[in-house]
Amino acid sequence: MSYQKKGQRLSVWARGFAGALALAAVSVTSVPGEAFAKGPSRCANKTEASALHMRSLQNHLMVAALSCDKRNEYDAFVTRFNKTLSNSGRTMKQYFQGAWGKSSGSQLDNYVTYIANRVSVQSLDNRVSFCNAANDMIEHVMKLDDAGLASYSATLPKENTEAPQVCL
Questions:
Q1: Residue 92 near residue 52 (C-beta atoms within 8 A)
Q2: What's the whole-number average pLDDT of the chain?
Q3: CB 8, CB 15: distance < 8 Å
Q4: Helix H segments across the chain?
Q5: How many CB atoms lie within 10 A of CB 104?
Q6: Global pTM value
Q7: SS3 call for 148
Q8: CA 130 – CA 80 distance, rounded (Å)
Q9: Contact 113, 119 (CB under 8 A)
Q10: pLDDT tens, 96-139?
Q11: Structure confidence by residue, pLDDT tens digits, 13-40
Q12: Which residue, among 6, 144, 153, has the nearest Cα to 76 in the 3D structure?
């Protein structure tokens, strides 16, 4: 799929940023409490949990791109791990489809927004500390292979375990 705006290809960062804005719009229009009134019908298996952790890592790096002026680094991360991130995204989508059925799309959007908001709050609480940690994180992940990235993502703070719409 080609992303173009007035004849120019958008960067990976711009596509991610546009997606983040769209997800933020979803969270603003959701009715609080209503979206999470009923929990998922099943918990994530090991592969699905790994995909959820991978998304948490990606959100950390996306917030760093926006908050710490790490757009080029985020772009390099997404480009390098595109296949892994795409596979994790498909696995995550399958989890939400299995756990939520017809409302899986909105639940997935709510989940991704929840994680992004949690990380954004961390960046706002102490920008200098967050950006220093994010810089270390980016340097570290760029030295990893796909398996190492999955292992590393499982060690991050567990915003996703607190998300009301998932069960790990």
A1: yes
A2: 80
A3: no
A4: 12-29, 46-67, 71-80, 82-100, 104-125, 127-141, 146-153, 159-162
A5: 17
A6: 0.74
A7: helix
A8: 23
A9: no
A10: 999 889 989 999 999 899 888 989 998 999 999 999 999 999 99
A11: 445 544 554 444 444 444 434 444 466 7
A12: 144
| Residue in the structure block whose two tokens are 């959100």 | 59
Cβ 76 vs Cβ 150: under 8 Å:
no
Kindly tell me the sign of the dihedral angle through the C-alpha atoms of 134, 122, 106, 50. positive
Count the Cβ atoms, other than its own, within 10 Å of residue 7. 5
Q: Percentage of the chain with pLDDT > 70? A: 71
| Structure-token match 């991050």, residue found | 156
- First-to-last C-alpha distance (Å) of the chain: 32
Cα separation of 152 and 53, whole Å?
9
What b/e readout covers 137-150, taking b as 16+ CB neighbours within 10 angstroms? bbeebeeeeeeebb
Q: How far is CA 103 from CA 18, 19, 107, 115, 141, in A?
A: 23, 19, 6, 18, 33
Place of tokens 């969270």: 27
Span 38-63, pLDDT tens digits: 667 788 899 999 999 999 999 999 99
Q: Which residues contact 51 (CB under 8 A, 6 or more apart)?
A: 44, 87, 88, 89, 91, 92, 95
Of the candidates 63, 81, 71, the one whose C-alpha atom is nearest the C-alpha of residue 124 is 63
**Stated length of the chain:** 168
